[in-house]
Amino acid sequence: MKTTTRVCIIGGGVVGCSVAYHLTRLGWSDVLLLERSELTSGSTWHAAGGFHTLNGDTNMAALQGYTIRLYRELEEITGLSCGLHHVGGLTLAQDRDRMDMLLAERAKHRYMGLETEIIGPDEIARRAPVTNTAGLLGALYDPLDGHLDPSGTTHAYAKAARIGGATIATHCMVHETIPRADGTWTVVTDKGTIHAEHVVNAAGLWAREVAAMAGTYLPLLPMEHQYLVTEEVPEIAEIIAAGGEHPHVMNPAGECYLRQEGRGLCIGFYEQPCRPWAVDGTPWEFGHELLPDDFDKIADSIEFAYRRFPALERAGIKSVIHGPFTFAPDGNPLIGPVPGLRNYWSACAVMAGFSQGGGVGLMLAQWMVESECERDVSAMDVARFGDWITPGYTRAKVVENYQKRFSVSYPNEELPAARPFRTTPIYDIFDQLGAVWGHQYGLEVANYFAEEGEARLETPSFRRSNAFEATRREVRAVREAVGINEVHNFGKYRVTGANARAWLDRIMAGRIPRPGRVTLSPMLSPRGRLWGDFTISCLDEQTFHLTASYGAQGWHMRWFEHNAAPDVRVENISDRLTGFQIAGPRAREVLVACTRDPLGEMKFMDVRRATIGMVDCLVQRLSYTGDLGYEIYCDPMAQRALWEVLWSEGRKQAMKPFGMRAMMSLRLDRFFGAWLREFSPDYTPGETGMDRFIAWSKKADFIGRAAAEAEREAGSPRVLVPFAVEAEDADVHGDEPVWIDGEVAGFCTSGGYSHTTDTSLALALIPRAAAREGLMAQIEILGQRRPARLLGTPLFDPRGARLHG
Ligand SMILES: Cc1cc2nc3c(=O)[nH]c(=O)nc-3n(C[C@H](O)[C@H](O)[C@H](O)COP(=O)(O)OP(=O)(O)OC[C@H]3O[C@@H](n4cnc5c(N)ncnc54)[C@H](O)[C@@H]3O)c2cc1C
């Protein structure tokens, strides 16, 4: 066996083999895949082999489309069969919310180039005759859905990897992975020791155990899953006799999926009384066995399935497959460089290996070989969970995720499991004020404040929810007097040292402020895409304070560490600093009344240290609400004391607390973008208007400079623009297509209702050539094309007098 390798992949399931193939395809042929048994010896061998493109995240859906299209190519390269059945698939809807979700998905597919269609009950009966259509409103049909042979497909990936130069060693168990001082790894196996430049953990069911060998925890858990295969079904035999094949049918209301298997049917369940498997660790001796049949667990689901697919009740059961496979807390894969380790990569928690395995392999290989993926992979980045995550949290969330696998997912939904978990010192005060809580990155965040007699729960909906009136009240309070909210959910970093300014000048594309001032800056990837959206304060020449998206902490710190330099210290202080933001025309009066420091003099984008009441604070004069406002940061131990003084002075000025719903409405008034909506690694500074914050004249060769300059020279073909939408009871959330002259020409990045101006607003990326003030377009919301007018200047405070005044 080889004793040195550029990449050592641990695990020969579908995911490990896909990673090996994609690495060789991108030119890294020195790849060694180690498998403790035969290939497919984890979850892979007992998969039902179904594949589909449907996924709430557009990038995940696109990668699923890539995976499915790859199979024919693999067959051509290897001459092996993947056992493909491209039969198409239907997702059924039997209530309005499900139909809304499918309409939103269909709309999204228009600009993704996916040829799905919405069909009615008669067409469902024609295409999927085993379905009882009683009570159905319609279905989404996807011609790409189908199924394959899991083993054949894994072996095809493996052969394609071997053709590309990879070595695959089976019956080779990895016992240890030991980091070396130069960032490379010693991999100890039962067949000898290997020196690897990179290690990829693709150990599926054993990913936790393999991660522990490197001293790290990956938040995933196996769940038990069961599907049944029936004896011959006459209706299926008839279809076969006529030369056809029955399509897949996803019946979310019954939490099941169904497809043809031979001359019978195969049906699998995501049952509510589900069970995690091997919570405290996957046994090494587990391999090619199944779990005992458990009909009790799926009894209700089977009853339901008989009503929707009556042919099932008449068919005998031929076999039962009951096996475990892994999930992350949000059900998406965990891929990328594992934070805190060098040259150690995760390709784990892939719960739909045959829909996602190709895309996961491609993204990880691009990340390793080219240092950057071609699209935003934050939805599956292993860094999206912070070091606050625990097995207890993972377990509660994984169970919830399994149970909700087929539930409608609403844009305003807040999932309840494992909450409240992380809270700030004023949690109970906000709770008593009526906070309706959401959560972000494990942290409780007030979405809005319910008044006496109002429900303390926002109704999940694609349309305007019961939070609409409360949000309006809070927006008015900010615009007419003053509002207060926490700043706990900002990512915060302290950058110190003799080299701090020079380092920031290289990492950030924007201008680094002088002492006492604040600037806004994009952070770019080497290819000039948006890597971050930062507010930078200079406290003194060697001390800088950065704020950015709270959920991107893992991503940001990994990037900062990757680009570490001497004489600079970067600390993640996100949870070591909390405080409040106050905003509105009376914000200055409140602040001045709380301090003896001359904070009334602060100009827009000033930063000062000050004592507010008795609390040492850092005060920045800026506000994402687009109004006169201040961000006031303090030690969490003093947050309650800071609250007391701000609230008691604030009440004299009609202060009201406001939550994230109001914040997102307020920022729209001024067309401010948000991270992962308008600003994400999918977009560039030129497209999003972030180029106005690039310091073109600075001497530093900041990361992404050449690419940003090239874009500046050539101009970006598309541009972010605001629209006023003639909406009815549903506003834009994001991903809705924009129709111009009868064609889908762009898509929305986000939107919502501007309560200040009583307008439904959308931000969208459209071709630059079409972007002119007054353009009349249409935005498709829940299947209806709503007229939308392109706006020039913000409808609220167009010259920014409030913000700057
Ligand atoms: C009942 C059931 C039905 C399913 N149906 C579908 C479906 O229809 N469609 C779909 O897309 N997905 C389905 N899945 C999920 C699918 O099986 C998984 O997504 C997929 O198999 C994950 O593959 P993997 O390569 O990540 O992990 P695994 O298949 O678990 O592979 C990991 C491999 O790593 C090896 N390994 C672990 N530790 C070591 C070590 N220390 N040294 C060397 N080797 C090691 C193991 O032996 C194993 O072969 C189903 C799963 C189940 C249980």
Describe the 3D structure.
Strands 1, 2, 8, 9, 10, 11, 17 and 18 form an 8-stranded mixed beta sheet that branches. Strands 5-6-4-13-14-15-12-16 form an 8-stranded mixed beta sheet. Helix 1 (14-25) runs parallel beside helix 5 and helix 2 (58-78) packs across helix 10. It has 21 helices and 37 strands. It starts with a strand and ends with a helix. A hairpin with a 2-residue loop joins strand 14 (256-261) and strand 15 (264-269). Helices cover 27% and strands 28% of the residues. The model has no long low-confidence stretch (mean pLDDT 96). By secondary structure, it is an alpha+beta fold. Flavin-adenine dinucleotide binds next to helix 1, strand 3, strand 12, strand 16 and helix 10.
